[in-house]
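All the exercises in this workshop are built on plain-text protein records. A learned vocabulary of local backbone shapes supplies the integers on the structure line. Once this layout is familiar, the rest of the handout is easier to follow. An example says more than a description, so a record of this kind follows:
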Amino acid sequence: MAKPSNVLRTRSAGGGLDRIDRAIVGALQDDVRLSNKELAARVGLAPSSCLERVRRLGASGVLRGAHAEVDPHALGVELEAMIAVQLRRHARDEVDGFWDHARALPEVVAIYHLAGEDDFLVHVAVRGAQHLRDFALDAFTTRPEVAKIETALIFAATRSWRLPDYLDAPAPTAPTPKRAGRRRR
């Protein structure tokens, strides 16, 4: 799990994706298993042009990978939780140190670095309650940079793997206020 990029990297000079790039991204979010031929037909390109665009989207960081959705129970995961973590200090070395530590733990599904009272929210998948307890105590409370943790069990969850396509669109501009006309005397 890599640290997130703070900058959306796209291939166009204006910082956005063109209509066809957006169609490719949308189609792949719907079904990453589309063949290049099927994807090209869906977005109205020749297969060679489509393949080149997919490669460019990958090289520029827009497309960051393809993943299989797996049933957690099939892997022995009986419990998932969110662990809120507060650090003692907000020094870069402590933040980066915790990030690197959490990222290396096999139970960690996702890590969110937050603003607000909690510094991190860590999504974990474990075998059961005892595993969760041992994990929280051994993996987090023993860390010198950790001041406090709070655990919330996940009863059910759903996730949309599709990001909204408006994120790359130009931001709306605020309407210009009308000026009162000057009266002539």
